[in-house]
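Pasting as-is:
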Amino acid sequence: PAPPTLRDAVVNACMFIHKCSRQIARSERKRLGLGTYMTPRHYVEFINQYVRIYTEKRADLEEQQTHLNTGVKKIEDTVRQVEEMQKALAEKDKVLQEKNRAAEEKLKQMMKDQQAAEEKKFSSINLSKELEVKTAAANEKKANVQKDLSSVEPLLAEAKQAVEGVGPKEINEIKA
């Protein structure tokens, strides 16, 4: 047998409640002696009450469903945004890694250049010291040469005077 439809289930439930109400009314009449009768008007009120409760519950459920659907949409939007942000983050992470590599290479190059500059500075300082030593030695030599020259200069002047005093006759005699 096929399962009952919603309509069949509601009809069966209403019939069951109506039959139970009648049985309760009969048993109360016997027990207490009160006359309670179930009229068609009571059944219509029962149906109207059921429809009102059904409508309220359905509206509540639809409101809850709308609320849940809105929440699900927001969660889906958030998931999509997170995925997009993760993609953007991955791309930016690649760019950051490339820039870090470039910065490291630049830093290494700067360190090499600095080391080369320090070596040149050290070499320049050594050359400067050597130059100072050689300059001092040259100045000392110059002083010695000046001293020797100053002692030889009077002799040279004397020899020059002596040569000037020699005439052509005397030169011919020396040649002969």
